[in-house]
Amino acid sequence: MELETKLELDNTQECFVQLWLRLERTRRLFGAQHKRFCIRQVLKSWFGLRATDDFIWEVCHRALVDDQPQEGWNELPTPMLYPRRHREFLRAIVAVKCGISFYRVNLKALDSAYSIAFPGSTPININKKASPLTPLRGEGN
């Protein structure tokens, strides 16, 4: 069962917010249907027949976590509680579908979209070190 047959992707914050929300809706739908919440099932649900084995392999291969590609049948954790794995998954989908390099996906927009989609959660990059050129809070003129 496809959630929607038409899914238009681009490299913008608005698109990323929709993807984060769609991912959470898909997780809930699969839970209600007693289906495995995994990359393969999500891609099949979102893209239907366009989610070929080659497409699924390419997304899994680009969705690196700890320098390891993800596997299509592995159960995914809740996006709201474990966002980093899903961040790489969404990043890989956009890269593959838009035909752009994995490194050209707008991570700043993807991370801020997470905070918009899940406002009660801790932002993804909360533990990143501040740039030496960026003044810390309370510093400056």
Notes on the protein architecture:
It is a single chain. The chain is mainly α and 141 residues long. The protein has one domain (13-117). The chain is 47% helix and 3% strand. The chain contains five helices and two strands, in the order αααββαα. The protein has helices spanning 13-32, 39-47, 53-62, 83-98, 107-117, and strands at 64-65, 68-69. A two-stranded antiparallel sheet has the order 1-2. β1 and β2 form a beta hairpin. The longest helix is centred in the N-terminal third of the chain and has 20 residues, at 13-32.
Number of strands: 2
User: Gyration radius, to the nearest Å?
Assistant: 16 Å
Assign the structural class, choosing from mainly alpha, mainly beta, alpha/beta, alpha+beta, or little secondary structure. mainly alpha
Overall morphology: globular
The count of domains is: 1
Note the gap between the termini. Answer: 57 Å
Q: Profile the largest sheet.
A: 2 strands, antiparallel
Helix percentage range: 40-55%
Number of helices: 5
Spatial strand sequence of the major β-sheet:
1-2
Q: Which band does the percent of strand residues land in?
A: under 5%
Regions with pLDDT < 50 over 5+ consecutive residues? 1-5
Quick description:
The protein has helices spanning 13-32, 39-47, 53-62, 83-98, 107-117; strands spanning 64-65, 68-69. It is mostly helical and 141 residues long.
